[in-house]
Amino acid sequence: MDQPSPEPDVVAGATTDGLPIAPSLGLALEAVHAPRRSSLVDARVVRISALAIAIAFGAAVVARLMIALIGLVTSIAFYGKLSLRFVSPAQNHLGLFVILVPVAGGIIVGLMARYGSRAIRGHGIPEAMEQVLLNQSRIPPRLTFLKPVSSAIAMGTGGPFGAEGPIIATGGALGSLVGQLLETTATERKTLLAAGAAAGMAAIFGSPVAAVLLAIELLLFEYRPRTLIPVALASVTAAGLRYATVGTSPAFALPALTQPGAEALVFYVAVGGLAGLASVYVTRLVYWIEDLFEHLPIHWMWWPALGGIVVGIAGYLVPRTLGVGYDNISDIISGTIVGRALVLLFVMKLVSWSVALGSGTSGGTLAPLFTIGGGLGAALGEVTARLWPQAGIDPRIAALVGMAALFAGASRALLTSVVFAFETTLQPVGLLPLLGGCSAAYVVSALLMRHTIMTEKLARRGVRVPAEYTADFLEQVPVSAVASSPVITLCAEDSLEIVRAWLDSDAPEAHHQGFPVIDEQDQVLGVVTRRDLLDRALPDEMLVSDAIKRRPIVIHEDHSVREAADHMARENVGRLLVLSNTTPPRMVGIITRGDLLAALARRLRESHDATRGIRVMDALGARRRAS
């Protein structure tokens, strides 16, 4: 067999079947290209953090302006006066004419959606998620104006929504706009979008930690310092501005609670499970109504007006269902609303909100879900406290758990729900019931519903939304653990005729898809692929060195496999030379795309083995129970 190698006294290293194996070759560092070491934070993070803080100021201002605009529209529509004070429409004296107010608001929002931007429809968060996942976090600039105005009109004319969704969407649009105007990457734009969204939520409720968690669970889809730090700083800034302008009192005042006992705690977890079950049917109800609107023989521009009829009728029967209703949440969890009035409120709120949201108008979901869940929890608490007085059940804690658990089940934002309920009430006694109840709601929802109220619309459009944020397995594996070694090399001075003859042989080493090329000084000149060597357009007398098309692309043995995969993608190559960390460096292996897949296969095997072990344990347990 012809061998593509010089004489053994020319090539350093051992040989196999006459081919040089080069575990240690001196490399000219200036001739290779290796990736830069990744770091948790760098100067760019500082710059993005500064931008996030500036965006937080803007989002906080937008939040206050939107609240004032809602108050203005409410005052004009229900009381016929000019005032920026945030008021409830429940005390209006319009009688039957109150039905026309939401209809008028629906007409205006429909016109804005048709001739402004259709993206203003809905509650904002799914639309922001879609831009993050599909459009590199680029939100059209006009939404920064259209979304808050349309939402303020919808809520000011009685729409049963919360202001938080539109403000979150508007803050996100502001962050995205800044990212588009400046030179930023898609990841940095996503960070600025999330920072603006978190700032908007913190500015409304004074809940900075929950705002950060919301950004992580629903917008960032990751947990990394370079994205977490700017979002956290923006959230703190917005919350600080709220404290300075509005005060430090909690958004939802709640009297002091007593520590629950074991029996009460079990009940609160059960309330959370029932709220999780309710969240499944609430989500299905909203999308069922939306599907009904889709089949109407009229343009979608008129749907919000039709939904406004139901909102108006519900508002005539139960005036508290009109508008944002933050006062309803406070009254429910404080025990001010009880009995028949409580049940009537959350049932009619459900009807009014689900129809309005299904019609495609502009508004948020968090406050309505809190009202519905809080009412459900309070009602269950009242009934159970009477039937089981010795358990020490507090209907106020049940209401707190119900409102957070319904949102946790509907959105699957578990930690956000728990911390938000705590930050907006400042009742540490409720933390344990909240954690248990929201976890139960999450389990029930995940078992019975594939998508959430936030992701169902996206799933229908074919968008796949991440549901689990796990550590990157490839980031945990060093290149040295998967690289192939020793390395089969080719001599630069061999002709293609010699190499082709060797490739046609039965030697196992000849079946590789790429080979490093070394010169007489044992320096790596580059890598040639099997396809290049067998290209018949190249004459047999051509030297191997002349078939090299690019400089060596290398990586060090202590880099992660994730860094290797990214380096391959950037350089558009299928293999990297692996260098040691010594001085001078040595070539200790080669890593290919196949090695990356092998690393992933290892993770799958480990997951399969764990699952198989669980199944075996379940089978053994069932056998023992049967015996």
The poorly predicted ranges are 1-31
CATH homolog superfamily of the largest domain: Clc chloride channel
Rg, please? Answer: 31 Å
In which order are the strands of the major sheet placed? Answer: 3-4-5
Per the CATH scheme, the topology name of the largest domain is Clc chloride channel
Question: Can you tell me about this structure?
Answer:
It is a single chain. The protein has 627 residues and is mainly alpha-helical. It has 3 domains: 15-38 and 479-600, Roll (CBS-domain); 43-245, Clc chloride channel (Orthogonal Bundle); 262-460, Clc chloride channel, CATH 1.10.3080.10. 57% of the residues lie in helices and 5% in strands. The chain is built from 22 helices and 8 strands. It has helices spanning 43-79, 100-115, 125-134, 143-156, 164-181, 186-205, 208-220, 225-245, 262-294, 303-317, 326-334, 339-358, 366-387, 395-411, 414-423, 431-448, 456-460, 473-476, 496-503, 530-533, 561-571, 593-626, and strands at 15-16, 19-20, 490-491, 514-518, 524-529, 554-556, 575-579, 587-592. It has a 3-stranded mixed β-sheet. The longest helix has 37 residues, at 43-79. The chain is elongated.
